Amino acid sequence: MSNALLPFVVMAGTMLTLLLLFGFFGGAGTVPAKRLGRVGGLTTHALDGKADGLTLKRSTMDSAIPLLDNLIKSLLPYPDKLRKRLARTGRNITLGEYLIVNALLVGVFFLVFVYIVHWAKPMSFFMGIAVGLYLPHMIINRMGNKRIAKFLGAFPESIDTICRGLRSGLPITECISSLGAEAPYPLNIEFSRISDAVRMGRSIEEAMWEVEARLDAPEFRFFIIALSIQRETGGNLAETLGNLGDLLRKRRQLLLKIRAMSSEARASAMIIGSLPFLMFTLLFFVNHDYVMLLLNTRKGEFMLGGGMTWLSLGVFVMKQMVNFKI
User: Using CA atoms, how far apart are residues 138 and 304, in angstroms rounded to an integer?
Assistant: First the structure.
């Protein structure tokens, strides 16, 4: 890599690091700001510097940069779906920050493929777009899935806590409020949002459906539907929720059993998928010139692209074969 390019790479890496630190893992804000943010849908950025005039007005800004905010609202298809995916992580990641990180990663990988791997610029451009867009997508999915897994892991026990509170004579709102104070993360955050919204005059069903839009978990939908049916038809709510808790435990046991039975197929998929990369790394150190034909010649690039395409299709098919939904 030339000395003239080095400052640009360092600058891009520094900007990316700052965005990851202050965007993906953003500040917490004040306590009143966070409480109003939970109820009114405000972000930390919308509440910064407004401690003297906090408001429940819902923020519609996707970025602090007006031009980027206008581009998001006018050009980006299905922005609401992307906002929900970002909200599933439980972190204060705005749509503008996410798109800036994507753009920076595309630029960094384009420079890496051109000046370090020495690919042609057209191929480097498309590979930079593919890698730069896929990495944030994968990280956001993993963060969201990890948080939802923590939520569902303790959710049946939280339903039992609600049942005990109902049997002792407490109303459902007080049971949910106690979970917001005592339940483990991330149940405490979500139930605190429900409790705060109810205190501000929202109905409990509306508050729960707003939380469900962020979680997108069928188990929580079961909970909302059971609660709504009981409120309309009457009956013993504690018994209904107790049966739901038992059902969710059996559902989780069945999912774990399926995962154990499909472990051999998943291990085979991981081994087969990693073999080409392991062999490429081994040959890179053993016979460097032989391997670099795949990267530095037009025929090698076409062969590499075809091989990666078929490998990706095979991994996708094997993943779908062991991915059971109940």
Answer: 23
Give DSSP secondary structure letters for 160-222.
Answer: HHHHHHHHTT--HHHHHHHHHHHSPTTHHHHHHHHHHHHHTT--HHHHHHHHHHHH--HHHHH
Structure tokens at 66: 């007006």
Tell me if 101 sits within 8 A of 139, measured CB to CB. no
Report the distance separating Cα 295 and Cα 70, nearest Å. Answer: 40
How does 263-301 read in b/e, with b if 16+ C-beta sit within 10 Å? eeeeeebeeeeeeeeeeeeeeeeeeeeebeebeeeeeeb
The pLDDT, as a whole number, for residue 265 is 77
Cβ(244)–Cβ(226) below 8 Å? yes
Instruction: Give the pair of three-digit tokens for residue 116.
Output: 């370090």
Closest residue by Cα to residue 106 from 121, 122, 82, 127? 127
Q: Using an 8 Å Cβ cutoff, are 111 and 26 in contact?
A: no
- Closest among 24, 6, 12, 14 to 104, alpha carbons compared: 12
Phi, psi of 116 (to 5 degrees): -105, -50
To which residue do tokens 């979970």 refer?
Answer: 179
DSSP state of 88: T
Residues 14-64: tens digit of each pLDDT: 455 545 544 444 443 333 444 445 444 444 444 444 444 444 455 566 667
pLDDT value, residue 194? 93
CA angle 112, 115, 116 (to 5 degrees): 65
Tokens of 26: 């953003």
Domains in the chain and their CATH numbers? 6-137 (no CATH), 148-251 (1.20.81), 263-321 (no CATH)
- CA angle (132, 133, 138) in 5-degree steps: 105
- Please report the pLDDT score of residue 280 as a whole number: 87
Low-confidence residues in the chain, pLDDT < 50: 1-4, 6-7, 10, 14, 18, 21-36, 38-56
- Residue 141 neighbours by CB under 8 Å, 6+ apart: 85
Quick one: CA dihedral 97, 100, 102, 105, positive or negative? negative
Which residue, chain included where needed, has tokens 């104070």? 181
Kindly report the pTM of this predicted structure. 0.71
